[in-house]
Amino acid sequence: MTGIQEESFLNDLGLSLEQAWQLLREGSTDRHSPLHTPVVATVTTSGTPSQRIMVLRSADQQSRDLRFNCDARGGKSADIDENAAVSVLCYHPEAKVQLRLSGTALVRSTGSEADAAWEEASLYGQRCYLADPAPGSPVGAPTSGLDPAIEGVKPTPEQVRPARANFAILLVEVQTIEWLYLAHTGHRRARFDWNEAAQEWKSTWLVP
Ligand SMILES: Cc1cc2nc3c(=O)[nH]c(=O)nc-3n(C[C@H](O)[C@H](O)[C@H](O)COP(=O)(O)O)c2cc1C
Fold it and tell me: Could you identify the atom of ligand 1 that is nearest to the CA of residue 53?
């Protein structure tokens, strides 16, 4: 967990922001971190919110990008095509920190970043993208969506190759971070808004 001590960030906006990114980075690399699986919310084409758990694959403080992997044919891709607004929610019980992030997303299935993410995925991970018909399709019987021949066995690179066409990365450019720290001495809440013109975060404390 983050090495930043409570006494340091409790009354320091800069350190609170630093801690938020540190927790996100740890979440992306440590599968045991509660921030490894945040909730990602989109707005559906009918205007309703839609949330789902996703695995956080990377968090880059410099570019303010969070990366997730997804199936390009899924519901969230269609949502984002129509409306790029997304929010990401996570809570770290040990750090006692809730992060509410918002920003804009794009789904990219080609390019070097998507290629690298595909190469990084395990064969089992890649196999998920073989689902046929597409994820979310109504079907008449229970199914994994996979050919029974590759269920329960480690797939080969040849077997998963066709799945690459369905694989995509979902990139969130973070524009707002709301940080809430729970402390028995009194909670702390701060908001950080990215100012594009000034290329810096505008920070303010909020009443929790
Ligand atoms: C622990 C966990 C991790 C998940 N990770 C991902 C993920 O990284 N990418 C993804 O697309 N779906 C992931 N899912 C499935 C989604 O929550 C969701 O059910 C699926 O993507 C369909 O969402 P959609 O119809 O909104 O596209 C995960 C689910 C769980 C429970």
Answer: 17
